[in-house]
């Protein structure tokens, strides 16, 4: 069983990496896509932002409801195969509408794999390793974010954006097949009792959050922090190319490395600290997350306004590290306050908040702010745009501390 758990974790780490590699290829090439398809920053913001996030949120809940009672490895296998095919089909887009349809397919499929995978892993691993496992998966997302940029930058030396979409998209179909054939699923093999057939609805999760002071503060946090985090991620490549004159290879290497340093280390540190100190007192997780977010604020402003590319990169590493300390502990704090049969839907709800606030509003608002500042700032218009969005980190930090203060965990 131990080796099967390890294999399952390894496969789901690969799935998480692929999910963000497919997203990041678009961000590195978005200026080329903008020029070839005749788009503006507002339309780019829609493609990376609200259009992606809306369908991500809509698809997440019906899939998560099935995952709370059905075959989770089947859900994950189908989802990764569909989003990989959608990534490959992006190579054939010749208009805004065609690219939009490909992005919608990518978003809808990616929405299902995360909650199903988190539910499966928290089922097959013991409670005392839960936050570490969650943080490993979040670190895998970070590897995908950074590795996707580095891979796309390296491939850009030889191939155009259309060919790169094909190269990164097609292998995911094989990964989906491996998940279905090799991953553990206790429900299928009768190793543990299945989750009751009673289904948890989105309305029930939202009512649970509304009736719990700690989870209300978590909701505010999940609306604020992703605005900044995803604005930096989705527009970071364009920021370094426009503001600091980097080419795609340099951007992929330096920005990808900065993301890896901040996000991967941050997630692993968060998991270790939370499991060590937050196990007996889950409220500790809120304090730990909040302090990290408050420290990240000045470095977020420094990243946006720095006149030197390497100073901006150094600030980016710090802000991503400090921001990343919040998510694993906050997810664990949420899971400690809801019953086990609600966890996949809770995970999907958290993803909905992150998707709509971060990918949706963060990417879109940053694009339209950049468009608004363009007459006065020209190619530097992303600087004031990202500096303004950094202020959301202050609100998120206060919300995290309050979530920890008011936490009321339930017994397993």
Automatic annotation (TrEMBL):
Subcellular location(s): the record lists:
Membrane
Q: What SUPFAM superfamilies does the entry give?
A: MFS general substrate transporter
Taxonomic lineage of this organism?
A: Bacteria, Pseudomonadati, Pseudomonadota, Alphaproteobacteria, Sphingomonadales
* Every Major facilitator superfamily (MFS) profile domain range: 8-408
> Which InterPro entries does its entry note?
MFS, MFS_dom, MFS_spinster-like, MFS_trans_sf
How does the UniProt record describe the way this protein sits in the membrane?
Answer: Multi-pass membrane protein
Highest taxon in the source lineage: Bacteria
| Statement: the UniProt record of this protein carries the keyword Transferase | no
Q: Which Pfam families does this entry report, sorted A to Z?
A: MFS_1
Q: By what name is this protein known?
A: Major facilitator superfamily (MFS) profile domain-containing protein
* Predominant location: membrane
**Which GO molecular function annotations are given, in alphabetical order?**
transmembrane transporter activity
Question: Would you name any one GO CC term?
Answer: membrane
Please list every transmembrane segment annotated in the UniProt record, as residue ranges.
47-67, 74-94, 100-121, 133-155, 161-183, 217-240, 252-273, 285-305, 311-336, 348-370, 382-403
Keyword terms: Membrane, Transmembrane, Transmembrane helix, Transport
């Amino acid at each position: 069983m131990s080796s099967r758990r390890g294999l399952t974790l390894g496969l789901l780490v690969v799935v998480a990496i692929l999910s963000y590699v497919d997203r990041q290829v678009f961000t590195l090439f978005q200026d080329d896509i903008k020029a070839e398809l005749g788009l503006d920053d507002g339309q780019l913001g829609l493609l990376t932002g609200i259009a992606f996030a809306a369908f991500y949120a809509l698809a997440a809940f019906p899939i998560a409801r099935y995952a709370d009672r059905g075959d989770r490895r089947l859900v994950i296998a189908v989802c990764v195969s569909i989003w990989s095919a959608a990534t490959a089909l992006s190579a054939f887009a010749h208009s805004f509408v065609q690219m939009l349809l490909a992005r919608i397919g990518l978003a809808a499929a990616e929405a299902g794999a995360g909650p199903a995978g988190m539910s499966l892993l928290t089922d097959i691993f013991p409670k005392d390793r839960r936050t570490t496992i969650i943080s490993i998966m979040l670190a895998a997302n970070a590897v995908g974010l950074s590795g996707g940029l580095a891979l796309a930058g390296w491939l850009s030396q030889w191939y155009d954006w259309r060919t790169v979409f094909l190269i990164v998209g097609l292998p995911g179909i094989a990964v989906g097949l491996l998940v279905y054939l090799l991953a553990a699923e206790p429900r299928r093999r009768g190793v543990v009792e299945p989750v009751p057939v009673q289904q948890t609805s989105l309305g029930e999760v939202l009512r649970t959050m509304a009736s719990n002071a700690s989870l209300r503060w978590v909701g505010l946090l999940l609306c604020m922090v992703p605005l900044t985090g995803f604005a930096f991620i989705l527009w970071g490549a364009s920021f370094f190319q426009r503001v600091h004159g980097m080419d795609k290879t340099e951007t992929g290497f330096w920005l990808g490395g900065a993301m890896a340093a901040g996000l991967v280390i941050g997630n692993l540190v968060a998991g270790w600290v939370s499991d060590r100190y937050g196990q007996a007192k889950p409220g500790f997780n809120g304090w730990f997350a909040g302090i990290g977010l408050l420290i990240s604020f000045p470095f977020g402003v420094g990243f946006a306004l720095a006149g030197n590319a390497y100073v901006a990169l150094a600030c980016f590493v710090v802000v991503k590290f400090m921001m990343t300390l919040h998510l694993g502990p906050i997810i664990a704090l949420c899971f400690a306050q809801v019953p086990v049969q609600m966890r996949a839907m809770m995970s999907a709800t958290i993803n909905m908040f992150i998707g709509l606030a971060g990918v949706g509003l963060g990417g879109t608002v940053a694009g339209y702010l950049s468009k608004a500042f363009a007459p006065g700032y020209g190619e530097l218009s992303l600087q004031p745009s990202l500096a303004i969005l950094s202020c959301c980190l202050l609100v998120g930090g206060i919300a995290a501390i309050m979530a920890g203060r008011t936490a009321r965990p339930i017994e397993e």
